[in-house]
Design a protein that fits this description.
single chain, alpha/beta, five-stranded parallel beta sheet
């Protein structure tokens, strides 16, 4: 997975209090940031990522490449043309750029552009299984969670995360049943409707 839209860490405008990285247990972060992360020459964030990097990564690793941080249909197309097998619609939970487009507002257009040529994943604002169901209706193949598992981990440790997933699974089954869907792979687009655009 290649994150392409965070060449710098965005300024936080929500006060001077501690961030999640300040209060999280070190063991929680080790999976993402091993000891010494960012200390070596060349570890700084790339400010010039482009399609050539997607192509290089796919060729160098021989692995499927997922490009994370896509909000525009034309960018999704550029990623796929460069060799990505999937794009991940994400605005990093709104933590990087204030007023960034909501992923729910971008998802349908990205999915329409990708069609059957790749997969589309999404995160951002997903707090319930009903949110996940809406994302599936908009065309997502997979839905990722950010804050929710971190909150569950903080409150209940590993058992809290297991409980969260069990509750989400039960809620998703119920939502599928109530919406007449027999599977997460058969969620029709007309489950989600939008009102008229405001002037």
């Amino acid at each position: 997975m290649l994150t392409v839209d965070t060449p710098v860490v965005g300024t936080k405008y929500d006060g001077r209090g501690p961030t999640v990285w300040d209060v999280a247990e070190p063991d929680w972060l080790r999976a993402n940031f091993p000891p010494g992360y960012g200390d070596s020459r060349g570890d700084e964030k790339a400010t010039d990522l482009g399609p050539q990097d997607v192509e290089w990564l796919a060729q160098a690793t021989g692995l499927p490449v997922v490009v994370k941080g896509v909000l525009r249909a034309q960018d999704a197309r550029r990623c796929l043309d460069a060799g990505a097998t999937a794009v991940w619609v994400s605005n990093h939970g709104g933590r990087q750029l204030d007023y960034a487009a909501a992923t729910a507002d971008c998802l349908a257009a990205v999915c329409a552009e990708v069609g059957s040529t790749g997969e589309v994943y999404v995160d951002g604002g997903v707090r319930t299984a009903r949110h996940a169901l809406a994302a599936l209706a908009l065309g997502a193949r997979g839905v990722f969670l950010g804050r929710l598992p971190l909150y569950a981990l903080a409150v209940g440790g590993a058992e809290g995360v297991e409980r969260m997933f069990a509750e989400l699974c039960g809620e998703l089954v119920e939502a599928l049943q109530l919406s007449g869907c027999g599977s997460v792979t058969r969620v029709p687009a007309d489950l989600v409707t939008r009102g008229p655009a405001s002037a």
